Amino acid sequence: MSDLESLALKLISSGPHKVEATPRRVRALFGGVWLFDTISARHVWEHQYYPQFWVPISSFAPSVLTKSKAIDSNGSAFLGVVKGNTKTTDRVLIFEKGPLEGLVRVEFKAIDEWLEEDQPIYGHPKNPYTRIDILPSSRKIEVKIGGVTVAESSSPKVLLETGLRPRYYLPKISVKWEYLSPSNTTSICPYKGQASYYNVTIDGKEYADYVWWYRYPTAESSDIQGLVAFYNEKVDTYVDGVLEKK
């Protein structure tokens, strides 16, 4: 059984965590074709953390969406396929009965580009209940790894994101760069953009991807552009001389 079939059966039996209409205009570009352009999408929380977009069947462009396989004997849900000009994907669920009746889930990562209004979104849809504040601070931040101070600043930016611990973004001039080396790792955050990473090496021991930064953050997180952050759950972080709990 595929992961999509397992997800569909879970949603059929237990329902989603939450479903809400969104007033956003939502579009998806795939293989040179706009699959849909709708103001009737739903935010569906398949788990408690963040939503996915589910889109009405009626919003899809003609001939781009087809059913491929029934998932249950009641005809509640089907695997599907969407087709662009240059490619197809089968990472599709179509619901015809139940709490998600008439809605389609196209896997976020399978799509070339998602837009809310005219703004590209990355990683996954934004949670409308998540807020980010980036506050300048004069608290002294000292970061130690393996007992060695690798960064120290009295002018951090404190990033506060709903439900998560504070992150301290430090000027690059506050970092001891002799301990850092570039990593090939990248990650995507819908609220902040694409992050690049650094490894830290202390006394021959490498701490992979302990540091990240955003060269081109999203507009809402532009205040952290060019600053670096450490995983404070992995390093020793002192705030005004007091060791923060990991």
TrEMBL record:
Pfam families per the record?
NTP_transf_9
- Domain (DUF427): residue spans on this chain: 141-233
Q: Superkingdom of the source?
A: Eukaryota
The UniProt entry, under InterPro entries, shows:
DUF427, DUF427_sf
- The name this protein carries in UniProt is DUF427 domain-containing protein
Species name: Oidiodendron maius (strain Zn)
